[in-house]
Amino acid sequence: MRAMDQQSRARFTKILKERRGAVHLRLALASEQGRMRNRSEVTDEGDRGSAETDKEMSAVQQSQAQDLLTRINAALDRIDAGTFGQCLNCGQEVSVKRLEAIPWVRYCIMCQELIDGTT
Question: pLDDT by residue (tens digit) across 73-90?
Fold first, then answer.
């Protein structure tokens, strides 16, 4: 397996750090919106139901964003360790197209399909 060249590592580092910054911003905005919602008065049953639904959706979105942040940080750690672009299951090289589409991806397409049970 060939190692990823320095230029590619730098490009993926930049992409991942930009995405991490965007996720941090999204989490900060969601947190601020939650605080604002908590301060607003709910006047009737319909408003309470809507506010509760918004709160549940926000919690799900925040959980997904936290998961993405974890995956992005793990990908940055793999870049530092020199293992970025290697499948965590089989050790084979993950295609550049796959990495460009999902830079925090952990598995090659074949292993991902096995894990997902889609083969």
Answer: 999 999 999 999 999 999
